[in-house]
Amino acid sequence: MSGEERREQIVEAIRGRMLSGTDLSRKMGVSRQVIVQDIALLRTAGYDILSTRRGYILQEGASCRRIFHVTHDDQHTEDELNIFVDAGGRVLDVFVEHDVYGLIRGELNISSRRQVREFMENLKTGKAVPLKALTCDEHWHTVIADSEETLDFIQDELAQRGYLLND
């Protein structure tokens, strides 16, 4: 199989589902390093491929992006994330601006209530604390959606619940 054919298969494999570099390398019969290079070439060719700690996924149909500056206590984390996903958004990340360390970002890639529940379960294990704990609950989320109207709806919902900070 040629490199071009392999990259076409990679695109099809990560369309609508997340696959790790290891899974892709097994499926394509090449090293993980070749997959990393192929992903770079695909991005150069214009494919919007999101890379997370859980794998790669092709971003399609979500051409609008907005950063939301928010604050809330720990009891409202699940509600906040559900606002994003219930409206049809995908929460790409969370980040804080720390006085000493500067920008600290964590990848989330959450787009469903199931993923919100899994995230909340991971927090409840006590092995980690939310990044917002470093900044007195103030944090930002990068969210993508299929339209500006969806992002406007999310913004209105966050404001109604008192989570949205005005910059």
Question: Would you give an account of this structure?
Answer:
The protein has 167 residues and is α+β, with helices and mostly antiparallel strands. Helices cover 41% and strands 25% of the residues. The protein has helices spanning 3-14, 21-28, 32-44, 77-86, 113-124, 148-160, and strands at residues 49-52, 55-58, 64-71, 90-98, 102-110, 138-145. A four-stranded antiparallel β-sheet has the order 3-6-4-5, covered by helices on one side. Strands 1-2 form a two-stranded antiparallel sheet. A hairpin with a 2-residue loop joins strand 1 (49-52) and strand 2 (55-58). Helix 1 packs across helix 3, helix 2 crosses helix 3 (32-44) and helix 4 runs antiparallel to helix 5 (113-124). It is globular and about 55 Å long. The N and C termini lie far apart (51 Å). The mean pLDDT is 91.
| H/I helix tally | 6
Shape: globular
Strand order of the largest sheet: 3-6-4-5
Estimated radius of gyration: 18 Å
Give the low-confidence spans. Answer: none
Alpha-carbon distance between the two ends: 51 Å
Major sheet attributes: 4 strands, antiparallel
User: Could you give the count of β-strands?
Assistant: 6
Derived structural class: alpha+beta
